[in-house]
Design a protein that fits this description.
Blueprint: H1 2-6, E1 10-17, H2 31-41, E2 43-50, H3 55-60, H4 65-74, E3 80-86, H5 96-103, H6 114-122, E4 126-131, H7 133-136, H8 141-150, E5 154-157, H9 164-170, E6 178-181, H10 190-202, E7 206-208
Parallel strand pairs: 1-2, 2-3, 3-4, 4-5, 5-6, 6-7
Helix pairs in contact: 6-8
Length: 212
């Protein structure tokens, strides 16, 4: 193992954990399996967040609040820490039609607010945030500004649904550490990975997570 043999401290920046055992996919790992896999791989710290939910589920359950809190409870005294998943309001696309639709959108009650971000950051249970615009929407400007104000790390998914150029023109405009998961190109999209690597030269607060 890397940690034991070489003293190498590896961090897996993202672990998607379904806290509701009844909703967990048959091939998905539970908290005990995740801890065992981290230990066997020599990974000393992981950061877990809940799996994506449907809009209908989010509307009925106060967004990701319940799921985030459930992951935080599971993470107590384990080798992974909780990060809060954020529900956005905007389409992450860049076309003129998308921009027009976004202008007409307002935040719904279940979507994450700046106050939610402040509360998550205030609690020691959460050490950062997860933004997946392709699944959950891109947060409003006020939410992104609050993320910059609290200064906690933010993890996002790279891929065709949210490519590096959109990451740069949206999230990297703000002053918070940004970790782009899947090397910026899920799944192993070489063109996107190379574009994500170029972001490192332009943004000191940008990091790539190489795990898949």
């Amino acid at each position: 193992m890397l940690e034991l043999e070489h003293g190498f401290r590896a961090i897996d920046a993202h672990i998607e954990l379904e806290p509701d055992q009844t909703q967990r996919q048959p091939d998905a790992s539970g908290p005990e399996e995740i801890e065992r896999e981290l230990r066997q791989a020599g990974v000393v710290r992981g950061f877990a967040f809940p799996a994506a939910r449907s809009v209908e589920h989010l509307q009925a359950n106060d967004g990701y609040l319940q799921a985030n809190n459930a992951v935080a409870r599971i993470a107590v005294d384990r080798s992974f820490r909780a990060i809060a998943r954020v529900a956005g309001t905007r389409d992450p696309g860049a076309g003129p039609g998308t921009r027009l639709r976004n202008l007409g959108r307002s935040r719904e009650d279940w979507q994450t607010t700046p106050d939610d971000i402040e509360q998550y950051a205030y609690e020691d249970r959460f050490v950062g945030f997860m933004i997946d615009p392709a699944a959950d929407g891109l947060p409003q400007q006020a939410v992104l500004e609050q993320l910059a104000a609290v200064g906690r790390p933010v993890v996002t998914y790279g891929g065709r649904g949210f490519p590096p150029e959109r990451i740069e023109s949206t999230l990297l405009e703000y002053d918070f550490p940004l970790v782009i998961a899947h090397f910026g190109g899920y799944a192993m999209d070489r063109e996107l990975i190379e574009a994500a690597i170029r972001l490192l030269n332009r943004h000191e607060q940008c990091f790539l997570d190489t795990s898949h």
